[in-house]
Write a structure and sequence with these properties.
The protein has 383 residues and is α/β, with parallel strands linked by helices. The chain contains 15 helices and 9 strands. It has one domain: TIM Barrel. The protein is globular.
C-alpha cells in the first residue's frame, strides 16, 4: 500500500481504482503514518514549518438559501440573525492587524442586504486601512459582474466550497433551486477574473460514498484551486440532518494528506470543524500537511449566532486569547505562526489599478503585483 503513496507523491495523481484501494486500506497498520510523513516532507519543501493565520470575520448570519445541512438556512426560525456594520468590520480588522493577522476573511450567508456597492465600499476601506493585508471573501454564489466589482475594489481571494462534485450527492444536500452546475460555473468565473480561489467539501456528509470522494479529488485535480477547505460534517439540531451521523476526523486528516501530495502548493486549512469533532484535530491536520488556521475575529457577542453546525469551538474566546492559544498549539507540534499574507506558492496576485493611476507606466506597474511577504529562506516557491 505504501507504493500507492509513493506513486501519489511522485506523479500527483492515482487512478480511481488506486484511490479506492488506498482509501479502503487507510486503517492498515502504519499506512496513515507513512502517508502523513510524506505529506509533511512535501509541505516542508514549499512552506517549511510556517502556519498561516486567517482572521475570520463572520459579518452576517442572514442567508437566502435553504441548504439541508446548514444552521443558517433560511427556514431555521430558531437562528438568531445579525449583521455587523461597516465600522464594526473595520474594527475587527484593526484588532486583527494589531495581533499579527495579515489576511482577513469576510464570511457571511448569502445576504442580499450586502449589495455590490456596500461590499465594495467595505473592501476598499479595508484595503486603504491595511494595504499590507490580503482580503478574502466568502459570500457564496454571486454574478460574474459582482465578483469582478469586488476584485477591482481590492479583494484578492475567494472561498466557495463546491460541497461535492457528485451531481446526485449535491441534489441530496440542497434544495432544487441550487445546482452543482451553477456552483462550478461560479468557481470558474472567479478563477477567470484572477482571484486566488478556494473550493472544498464536507467529509462524511449524508449520502456521501466513496464515489463521491473520488469525484471530489478528480475535480480538485482538474480545477487546480489555490486553496481547498475540507472538514468533517457535523449536524446542526435545527436542520433536516439533525439526526445524521457526523463525519470522521481520521478520514478528514487522511484526505488532507492526499490533497497535499496531489497538489503540493495548496493552502490547506486545518478547520474549526476538525477541531470541534476532535480536541486535537487541528494539530493532527497540521501534521498531515495542513498549513492554514482560521481563528475568529468576530465580536464575541455574535459568535454563538453564526452556527453552521452544533458545538462549534472558540465561540467565547476573545481574539487575543484565541491567537495566543493557537500559537501554543502550533508550537506544540513543531511549527511556527508566520506573520505574513501567506499567499499560495507560485501565485502572483494582481492588484487592480485604482482610478487615476497609470498602468501603462512601467514604473507604476510594479505596485499592481503584490508578492507574498516571505522571510528569507522560508516559504520556497515551486520551480
Amino acid at each position: 500500500m505504501e507504493k500507492l503513496v509513493d506513486k501519489l507523491e511522485r506523479e500527483g495523481m492515482l487512478s480511481r481504482s488506486e484511490f479506492t484501494e488506498l482509501l479502503a486500506g487507510r486503517k492498515q497498520a502504519g499506512l496513515a503514518a507513512y502517508l502523513f510523513e510524506r505529506a509533511r516532507v512535501v509541505r516542508h519543501r514549499i512552506y517549511r514549518r510556517d502556519v498561516y493565520l486567517r482572521g475570520l470575520i463572520e459579518f452576517s448570519s442572514y442567508c437566502r438559501n435553504d441548504c439541508f445541512y446548514c444552521g443558517l438556512r433560511k427556514s431555521n426560525t430558531a437562528a438568531e440573525r445579525y449583521r455587523l456594520s461597516a465600522d464594526e468590520i473595520l474594527e475587527c480588522c484593526a484588532q486583527g492587524h494589531a495581533l499579527g493577522f495579515r489576511t482577513f476573511v469576510l464570511q457571511s450567508g448569502e445576504d442580499p442586504y450586502f449589495t455590490d456597492e456596500r461590499m465594495a465600499d467595505i473592501v476598499r476601506a479595508i484595503r486603504a486601512a491595511h494595504p499590507d493585508c490580503a482580503i478574502t471573501l466568502s459570500l457564496g454564489e454571486r454574478a460574474f459582474e459582482s465578483y469582478r466589482i469586488l476584485f477591482e475594489a481590492g479583494a484578492e481571494r475567494y472561498l466557495l466550497r463546491h460541497e461535492t462534485a457528485n451531481e446526485r450527492h449535491y441534489q441530496g444536500l440542497h434544495p432544487s433551486d441550487l445546482s452543482l452546475r451553477h456552483r462550478l460555473d461560479c468557481l470558474h468565473e472567479l478563477q477567470e477574473i484572477g482571484y486566488q480561489v478556494g473550493c472544498g467539501f464536507m467529509v462524511g456528509s449524508p449520502g456521501q460514498d466513496l464515489d463521491c470522494l473520488l469525484d471530489d479529488l478528480f475535480f480538485i485535480k482538474e480545477f487546480k484551486p489555490q486553496m481547498v477547505g475540507i472538514g468533517p460534517f457535523i449536524p446542526h439540531k435545527d436542520t433536516p440532518f439533525a439526526g445524521e451521523k457526523p463525519g470522521e476526523a481520521g478520514l478528514t486528516v487522511f484526505l488532507l494528506a492526499i490533497l497535499r501530495l496531489m497538489e503540493p502548493g495548496l493552502l490547506l486549512p486545518a478547520t474549526t470543524a476538525l477541531g470541534t469533532i476532535d480536541p486535537r484535530g487541528r494539530e493532527a491536520g497540521i501534521l498531515a500537511g495542513a498549513n492554514v488556521l482560521m481563528p475568529n475575529l468576530s465580536p464575541v457577542r455574535v459568535r454563538a449566532k453564526y452556527l453552521l453546525y452544533d458545538n462549534k469551538i472558540c465561540t467565547g474566546d476573545e481574539a487575543a486569547e484565541c491567537r495566543i492559544c493557537l500559537e501554543k498549539r502550533v508550537r506544540g507540534v513543531g511549527y511556527a505562526v508566520a506573520v505574513c499574507r501567506g499567499d499560495c506558492a507560485g501565485f502572483k496576485p494582481v492588484r487592480v489599478p485604482l482610478t487615476g493611476e497609470n498602468p501603462s507606466d512601467p514604473k507604476e506597474m510594479e505596485k499592481y503585483y503584490v508578492r507574498p511577504e516571505i522571510p528569507e529562506g522560508r516559504g520556497l516557491y515551486l520551480s
